[in-house]
Amino acid sequence: MSTPPSGPNYSWQPGDYKSAPTYGQPPRKSRAGLIIVLIVLLALVALGAIGVLAYRLVSDSRISDKEPGSAASAPAGNAKPTPVTRPTATRATVVRPTTARPSVPSRGAAGATDLARRFVIQLNANNSKGAAAFACKGSEQLIPLLMRTLVGPPTKLTTGTPTGQAPTFVIPLSGTSKGAAVTGVLVINQLDPAPLCVRAFQITTTR
């Protein structure tokens, strides 16, 4: 036990004594480290549980995909390709003026009028081969030559009332050719026993 200090200028008080430390007891440790360790352990356990759950979900998904009869589990080599239906190419039908000589139902002026109408259709279509099919013997080359010289698109000719009698009929022509107004005549022959035929034609521009 220590002796209180003494002296002329010191006044001793009862509270000046300090208690001595207790011996034989361990010092108190801080609990902060223990709490951190517990938090880390809990986090590891939670992560492990999440990993196990994710693994089970992936395993269940793979098993369901490999079930027999599933379209996704079928081997790619056994799958048959779906046939592709390609559209069939179709060719457009082109209607061309006929080059064959049509039959004339009657002779005389009525037959000449019908033949002239059919011949003018070929002139309006600028079809020299079709027009030559109506030509008389000896005029097969003349008709295409007259067409190249006198007729040009756009052409729109019409026929009039025939004049004359067998063996020669003259049919008036009128309309437009090469964009200009024209008039002319068409000469049709009827020589027995040959059928009606076109001998020649002529058109001129009107002013």
From TrEMBL:
Which of UniProt's keywords are assigned here? Answer: Membrane, Transmembrane, Transmembrane helix
Indicate, by first and last residue, each region the UniProt record lists as having compositional bias (Low complexity): 69-102
- Region (Disordered), start-end ranges: 1-24, 64-109
Protein's name according to its UniProt entry: Uncharacterized protein
Compositional bias (Polar residues) spans?
1-12
Segments passing through the bilayer = 32-58
